[in-house]
Structure formats: C-alpha cells, structure tokens
Amino acid sequence: MHININIEIEQYLTKGSFGHIYLGNVSSNDTNDLLYNKVVVKVDKNISSVVWECYIHTLLKHRSIATDSSMYARHYLEPICLILYSNVSVMCMEYAVYGTLHDTIIELSKQKLSVKEHELVCLHFANDMMQVLGHLHQHGIIHSDIKTNNWVVKKDQETSKLLLMLIDFGKAKDVLVSSGQTNIIYTGSSSARGFKCPAMIEGSPWSFEADYYSALVCIHQSLYYQPMSTITRVTIDEVKRFGYTSDARIAGPYVIPTTSIKRYWNREVWSTLYYTLLNESSIPSALQTVTQMLQASVSLQAAGVIEALRILTNYLQKI
Predict the structure, then answer these.
(1) Domain residues of the chain, as ranges?
(2) Contact 280, 216 (CB under 8 A)
(3) How are the residues of the chain apportioned to helix, strand and coil, as percentages rounded to the nearest 5?
(4) N or C terminus: fewer CB in 10 A for the chain?
(5) CATH class as words, domain 5-94
C-alpha cells in the first residue's frame, strides 16, 4: 500500500556510520493526520545496507508467524517506512525513549542501585538477549553486529517491564537464503571493535557463535562497566579455580574472562553463562541449558527483578 506521507524533522540525535539520525514524526500529506509521533529518522548514504535491513525484517517477521509472532513484536523495532533516492535513503523507525543499552549502562554506573538490584537488572537483560538470539537463530538469521548501541530499551506496555529490542540489521546474514541449511559459515569481520569474536579477529570461519560472543560482551559491560578481556586455560580444573564452574562438553584449551565472578553474585548462573558462550556456543544443548538456567533464575526472583527494573525506569525517566 502506498501512502503519501510527510516526514518532519524535530531534532538532530547523532551521527551514524554512513549518515545522520534525527528525531521526527510522520504525517499524512492527504489528511494532515499524524501517523507516527516520535520516530527515529535515519538518513543514510549506504542505501544497499538499509534496503537489506528492511528485507531481513520482512524475512524475520514472516518466518516468526509460524512459531511466535509476539516475540518479533516485543523484541524487534520494525521499520515504519523507507524512502529511496538516487544517493541517499530515509528510513523511519519507532523511537525508543529510554535510548540504547549503552546509555542505560552509563546511567547504571552513576546510580546507587544495591548490589542485588544491579545483578537482577543484568540478569533480566541477559535473559532477554538469550531469548532474542535463540529466536533470531532459529529462523536462520545471524545479526553479526551485536553491540550495546544496537540494543534499545523500551517499556513493555503490558507488564511495564523494560525490554531489550534488537536493531540495525544492515550486516545481518540469512543462512537459509541459498540452501535452506543452517550450517553455513562466514569469514571476514563485521562486528564493532571490542565486540568481535575471536574467529573474526583471527580471520577464521564463524557462524551463529559470533552473536553469542558479542552478546556476552554486552552482558559483561552491564555487570562490570568495562570491556571484556579473556585468557586461555588448558584444563577444566584451571577454569574452575577461577570460579567458572561448568561441566565441559569439549576438550581444552578453554577461554575465560580475566575478571572473576563476584562472590555475592549467583556464581552458578554467571559462570555457566560465561563458560558456555565463550567455549560451547556452537553446541545447541549447551545453549539450551544456559538459556533455561537464566529463565529459571529470573522466574524465581521475579518480584526482585520487577522492583529493580522499576527503580531503573525511574532513573531513566529523569535523564
């Protein structure tokens, strides 16, 4: 359906890789009715990337219909409209009033949440990430550019809880596009500096595990407010001495962070998450185990999670 629309720019927000991002609104030129208030207007010179992003959204939404269409609506910001010119594209998306996860982490570091409240917020965000990536990969899409600026924070209208929503699919891979199989591997680098998985850095083949590594960096930054660095250990006993207790499904060497799990955190959950995403993210059963562990932990502490998110929401509303 074609609609004659008018896009009004209200405010400059930031600079993107190939253009600029603004805050605006979308109205009908025919009726002057406001169609969308508070939208992100992305003016981008990399036209092919923006077209590909819209295509990936269409694929993902279509593939989600047969399983869980509500997952797509809750955790992805669908493009509202796309206008193509000879030298630039203009894409509008819903505006996430609480900003990106990067913004939220900065705010978290400034506020005086209790130790437990901080951990519960991070636990909730980690659970959201694992749910989103599980859904994304189930439908044959690798994002390949996961970073804190590509998660936006939004309040769920039904539960009032903060949700993470994944954006910017311009570098996404559709592993089903040619063969319908999900065992395709890629080479080259597409993630941002600091979020690249080891295979990208080394020039080795990579697949879905690239997203899990990048997501773990996001989780690590929310927990420690600093970049993640890793070390290699030869035996699982050495891994356990660093507090990363897990049942190894593979032979060493093993990769673990240089930071230790804090003694007052849920060491079983966090150590399993770190160990799995750094060493066994290509093993479906290992991913299923850690995903279920996160879900169970969030459910068992539901009241505390809701309260911690309420406090964080109040902080974010004051920005």
Answers:
(1) 5-94, 101-317
(2) no
(3) 40, 20, 35
(4) N
(5) alpha beta
